[in-house]
Write a structure and sequence with these properties.
Rossmann fold, 20 strands, 21 helices, about 550 residues, alpha/beta
């Protein structure tokens, strides 16, 4: 006989949960009490529910298991819903638990009451409420399975406070193994033939059910065909950047040479990718009907196939199993030179050249990081903002699990993601790259990092404004600034107040020595980079946009 809180924790442990991120609330005290006697689970106490949910997103991305987050009802759930949205758009497994009002209070608009199933159904892969404590094992097993199978995603579970206190007899469920979606050998042979006979084939990779083994298998078969491999938006770690056929990334600010390759392709292999708006430049780089192009779409979820794009060959399979089938002997007609040519184009595009007249050149800062930090043991975490463009273009990611960046374009993700990465991968260097507006949305999670002993580095790019919106504003309404300027604190002093080490950097020459000092420290380290908003991204300036 156990209460619902104890049953819930026992069944999370049974499924393999070893860490949860939470902001405490009175609505799930029974769960917190059970966690008191559960050393198998590390409880990370966060400062705001959005930060906690982002940490769970990042943890799920790194492990392939559901990241687990607990929040309280009403304000807690609404604060945390941003993480559910990101987990859905990023195809990340997550369990998002909400402590809810007592069952007897429902439908009276009680204190902080919300219909969470109705609220989260459009945001999540599945939204549930548990009313019977004896059925908790059933619900946890179902939620774990839904979160990890097919296209992974978040499952939201509402927990009435009184249900968690019920003492019941419950039968625990054993650990689940994710259902495996194999590829079909006939389909693989057909795709081999299509690639071998295509004039300009290209693959766009990264997304659902991806891991390091998948990246290695995909790289192996692509090298055999000489097939250029482009990564989908913010999936640059899907393939190690030293792969000899890696062609770079699509999304915002891509290499024009890569864009031309996609436009000229007669065969497009989408492997694990949804071909979303950012990857396809608003569904224009590859149109839903893609005339003159053959589209092969491989995805582990049948609901994604033919959902937006007319697909010539639809294969429901996990990317790794498809790739293994593609490593069979290939035709002598494979276009061996295309992948190597695309890789050379990317190498040139990703090599930063000094910008004239720029006091603090972020391209050279990224180059200094490349010279000092091992890409395979560095995890770059960023939220949204033009600052990220320098790292997306010039950093060379070291394979799966070295990039945490929301494809949903959410601000405030970088610092919480870096906290989760530092705790999950203490043998690697977690780096949060954040803009000034981006940082202040969840910068309070530096307190979480210090409290839990996380080692992480923050590169804070401060240009005194919401840079991305300023860029769009200058394009649409030149010189008419409204609502995009920011008055910022002394970020280095703020980091020190949290208990971290910090320096301010104002010139390119100051960056490398400051980085060396930061890397020699432990704990939270922050480099505050004061930049000029005129240098709005790696390719242009505010003046150029305004004058256009």
């Amino acid at each position: 006989m156990r209460n619902g809180g104890r049953v819930l924790v026992d069944n999370l442990i049974a499924q393999g949960c070893d860490r949860i991120f939470q902001v405490p609330g009175e609505s799930f005290l029974a769960v917190l009490d059970a966690l008191h006697d559960s050393p198998e689970i590390d409880v990370v106490t966060c400062r705001q529910e959005g930060g906690a949910a982002f940490m769970a997103c990042a943890d799920g991305a790194l492990t392939g298991r559901p990241g687990v987050c607990f929040v309280t009802r009403g304000p807690g759930a609404t604060n945390g819903c941003i993480g559910v949205h990101v987990a859905m758009q990023d195809s990340i497994p997550m369990l998002f638990f909400i402590g809810d009002v007592d069952r007897g209070m429902r439908d009276r608009e009680g204190f902080q009451e919300v219909d969470f199933v109705a609220m989260f159904t459009p945001l999540a892969k599945l939204a549930l409420r548990i009313d019977d404590a004896a059925r908790i094992p059933e619900y946890i097993a179902r939620a774990w399975n839904v979160a990890t199978s097919g296209r992974p995603g978040p499952v939201v579970i509402s927990l009435p406070e009184d249900m968690l206190c019920d003492v019941v007899e419950a039968v625990d469920r054993p650990k689940l193994e994710r259902p495996v979606q194999d590829s079909d050998i006939v389909a693989d042979l057909h795709v081999q033939d299509l690639i071998a006979n295509a004039r300009n084939p290209i693959a766009i990779v990264g997304g659902s059910q991806w891991d390091g083994d998948t990246g290695a298998e995909v790289a192996a078969f692509a090298e055999g065909f000489g097939l250029p491999l482009a990564t989908a938006f913010r999936r640059q770690d899907a393939i190690p950047s030293d792969c000899p056929v890696y062609a770079g990334n699509l999304g915002y600010g891509p290499n024009p040479a890569l864009v031309a390759r996609v436009r000229d392709a007669d065969l497009i292999l989408a492997l694990g990718a949804r071909l979303g708006e950012a990857t396809t430049d608003g569904y224009t780089l590859i149109t839903p009907d893609h005339p003159g192009q053959t589209l092969v779409h491989v995805h582990p979820d049948p609901n994604e196939l033919n959902r937006v794009y007319r697909t010539d060959v639809a294969i429901c399979a996990e990317p790794v199993n498809f790739a293994r089938g593609m490593t069979l002997p290939v035709s002598e007609a494979s276009p061996a030179g295309a992948g190597a040519e695309a890789h050379e184009e990317w190498l040139a595009w990703s090599t930063p050249q000094p910008r004239e007249g720029v006091t603090l050149d972020l391209g050279q800062c990224v180059l200094a990081m490349r010279e000092r930090m091992n890409a395979a043991s560095t995890i770059i975490c960023n939220g949204a903002g033009n600052f990220s463009a320098w790292w997306h273009r010039y950093w060379r990611y070291g394979g799966y699990g070295t990039q945490l960046a929301p494809t949903a374009g959410a601000m405030g993700y970088g610092v919480p993601a870096a906290v989760a990465a530092a705790l999950r991968c203490p043998d690697k260097t977690a780096v949060a790259v954040a803009g000034d507006g981006d940082f202040l949305m969840n910068g309070q999670e530096l307190a979480t990092a210090v409290q839990h002993g996380a080692d992480l580095l923050v590169i804070l790019v401060d240009n005194g404004g919401f840079g991305t919106i300023r860029m769009h504003q200058e394009r649409e309404y030149p010189t008419r600034l409204s609502g995009t300027n920011l008055a910022n604190p002394d970020f280095a002093a703020l980091a020190r107040a949290y208990g971290g080490w910090a320096e301010t950097v104002e010139t390119t020459e100051q960056f490398a020595p400051a980085l060396d000092r930061a890397l020699a420290e432990k704990g939270v380290r922050l480099l505050h980079l004061r930049t000029d908003i005129e240098i709005i991204n790696p390719a242009t300036t505010i003046s150029a946009i305004r004058n256009r």
